[in-house]
Amino acid sequence: MEIAINPIQAFLIGIVYYLGIDGTPWITHLGNHTWLRPMFNGFIVGIILGDPVQGTIIGAAINLPYLAFISAGGSVPMDPALAGTVGTALALGANVSPSVATTMAIPIGLLGTIIWIVHMTVDTTFVHMADKAAEEGDIRKVNILHVAPPQIFLFIISVIPVAFAVYFGVDAVQWLVDALSGRPLDILSAIGGILPALGIAMNLRAMNGSGKLIFFLLGFLLTAYSGLPILALSIFGAIIAWIWTTLDLKGEY
């Protein structure tokens, strides 16, 4: 079922993206490491649009290509938060499958680098202003310049474009889906089914390099042959991760 997105919902989805974009201090660790993940912000977008279950399903599908995402040295090669919020909203609005949503979300995530570049470029102006205030000994002004102008600017360049994109973009996506119905849409679905393999492969490579691939193999075998529900396996995995991390920090393994 297609979902009509009203202006208030579009604005709230824009705020979801703003809270997930790298550089917002309001929810600190949750924002930079959890809120930006498409599965999480897809769930929030789903709540806003009245279908949290389908929002989570679509967000989880979009999340797979970004499993190994990392931002290092101020470089953001892609934006999973933008892919998750806009991709989930457009997918719910146009009623497309999770695999097609993944295909749509990848280029959307690449567009997020533009927002990041604009954000970092303009913020250099506030840094120079803070340097001048520091030379004058005005610590209060330094603190204000460190938070207020950058966050106001980031709010504007993140919330407004996303709100417009999800409000006006659903009709365009629906038109495109109708135009591509049949074999073209089947091809997009196939591509969307392949893309998650890229994220899984990158994650496996990272685990193999640090000697943790054996835990992935253990989880795979338990999932395939134990018959236990995924919730129980997730709890077991969390316990094993806690034990391993504790021993690792103490140097006792």
Order of helices and strands: HHHHHHHHHH
Tell how many strands the DSSP assignment holds: 0
Helical coverage, percent range: over 70%
Rounded radius of gyration (Å): 21 Å
Low-confidence stretches: none
Number of domains: 2
Mean pLDDT: 78
Q: Quick one: biggest sheet? A: none
Using brief descriptors, characterize the structure shown.
253 residues; globular
Structure description:
This protein folds into 2 domains: 7-209, no CATH class; 212-253. α6 crosses α8. The protein is built from 10 helices and no strands. It is mainly α and 253 residues long. It is found in: Cell membrane. It comes from Tetragenococcus solitarius.
